[in-house]
Amino acid sequence: MRIVEYDRKSVKEYAKKWAYLRNPQYYNYDSVGGDCTNFVSQCMFAGTHQMNYDKNGWYYQNANQKSPSWTGVEFLYQFLIQNKSVGPFGKIAKKEELQIGDIVQLSFGEDHYGHSLLVVEKKKDEILVATHTFDSYKRNLLSYQYEKMRMLHIEGVRKW
Question: 68-74: long-range contacts (C-beta < 8 A, 24 or more apart)?
């Protein structure tokens, strides 16, 4: 197994193209709980080109054959910080460590995190994000009202 660089440029290009649209290759989960993590996973896949088909992996084949981590906020978090196999892997990060293609997850007062956002630009103290469900591109992270926030830095991609 080898580690390759996460293609942050491709992630951003994908996010820009699909932030206000839906890629017909993927199911739109807006009507069944939200599409934010599905969108973030699609963006990440554009920068990794590597899925993980393990039992607790990260993959998408169709609307009914996908891993919980492809569309679930908490599951994506667990996959990224625990993944020792193929696919993207990451770590909990501080605001200063975030780069284009990294992930921010928000909690709106529940006991869990319920929204995933993709970092598409950083300007000094501003972090601009893209997301689905409340579709946006280059929205300032400070414009969100949230209870808690966690940040994930994608460290790389493992490939066979």
Answer: 69/41, 70/37, 70/38, 70/41, 71/29, 71/33, 71/37, 71/38, 71/41, 72/37, 73/36, 73/37, 73/105, 73/112, 73/113, 73/114, 73/115, 73/116, 74/112, 74/113
- Could you give the C-alpha distances from 83 to 27, 88, 133, in angstroms and in order? 25, 8, 27
CA separation for the pair 66, 51 (Å, rounded): 10
pLDDT in tens, 9-46: 999 999 999 999 999 999 999 999 999 999 999 999 99
Query: Where do the domains of the chain lie?
Result: 2-159
Q: Which residue has the tokens 């992630």?
A: 11
Cα–Cα distance between 98 and 42 in angstroms, integer?
Answer: 19
- In words, the CATH class of domain 2-159 is alpha beta
